[in-house]
Amino acid sequence: MSELKRLRSQANRTQQKVVEDLTGLATRLHREGRIAKPPTFSVRQLSKWEGSDPPWPYPEAREVLATYWGRSVEELGFRPPSVDEPDGLLVLTPVSLISQSPIPTPRLAGAGSSPLTDHAPPPWLAETVTDSDDWRIGANEVELLREAADDMDAIDQQFGGNRLWRPTRAHLYWVHHMIDRGIYDDVLGKQLHAVAGKFTTSLGWFCYDAGLQPQARQYFAEALNSAHFTGDDVLASRTLSNMARQAVDLNKGREAVRFARLAQTHAELWQAPYRVTALLAIREAQGHARVGDAFNCESAIRRAWMEWEGGVDERDPDWTTFLNLAELTCLEGMCRLDLGQTSRAQKLLAESEALQDVAHSRNRGMCLGRLSVAAIQNGDVDHGVAATAEALRLIEGGMSSTRAAHQLKTVHDGLIPHQRASGVSDLLEQIRAHVA
What we know:
Elements: H1 3-10, H2 15-31, H3 43-49, H4 59-69, E1 105-108, E2 128-132, H5 139-159, H6 165-181, H7 186-209, H8 213-230, H9 233-249, H10 253-269, H11 274-290, H12 294-308, H13 325-338, H14 342-355, H15 361-377, H16 381-396, H17 402-415, H18 424-435
Antiparallel strand pairs: 1-2
Helix pairs in contact: 2-4, 5-7, 6-7, 7-8, 7-9, 8-9, 9-10, 9-11, 10-11, 11-12, 11-13, 13-14, 13-15, 14-15, 15-16, 15-17, 16-17, 16-18, 17-18
């Protein structure tokens, strides 16, 4: 007998009664803001859940089930479809958060009960004291942190992550401090954990962009664990997408494919919009390209474009807004370059560079670096030099991405055989000055 059926029998409730209870509870949780929308329950669905191999419920249904029975969905007998993710760890989805009991908690010295504001001193730099047992977290504080996380991501898109991982790590420490020591209700608790997950995966990305690969993998693993712990399939999709991109740069193409496919599994669980599925398809394509699998790469590229043409959606998460026409063209060009299709790669990357906007100068810098490599490998040294010069101009303008700088090292090595050509010698000196 399944655990879910055993609990129902022990409570002496019929399937119809449980369905009615779950429906009423879902309505209440939705009214309280604890779930985005109330899921539909039926006797047929409950029968499937009470079977020997129950299907994994959608996030809202998981929340209702865990709250109704007072235990995690894993303890109820459910197993996520992606249980074989990195390290094979199975983390229990928690029962709804409850308000924290008053305990001696630190507060900002001199801050009294004032909430965090744009003008307040950074809390992690302020002195803390422990004579307060009533540190209540407010909705404004959580919203301010969420906006800070969005700001960090926006700055990364424009300038790169080299100068962002330290302040982001400080923000993350503070969020965990609030979670551990603050007093809050269920709704704010879920929001705090969501903000912590957002900061964690962003921190992993910033470390990756700054060339701190071991730290990036550590934060990605932590973010993925957090996604499992809170049942956040959106965070899992984003984190696995980031991990797939990093795996390509670490020359782990098969690992990139695995991460991208796991991300697609999570995306199905929250019925992700087209921009998300397009991004995950092109991430898979990049993994195939890195191992030279042209057949599967072509298939994934076609799928990425087909999904992208589905258009924008009001549910598009902010971490997919960068995937415009210019960026998807660039990512395909990168796949072509890895497959050795240099002529086709140069054409795509040149098209992408012409489409790039000022708000994504880091991505434009990456595109220019790849374009330089493709042009040089294609024997078009003049265009390679021009693209490299433009990439250097972006770096001098404040773009700080170790990944982009690393691309210039590759360009440097490719230009050495052509150092007698016009302007190449001076360009090599400029590259060495910036990426030494």
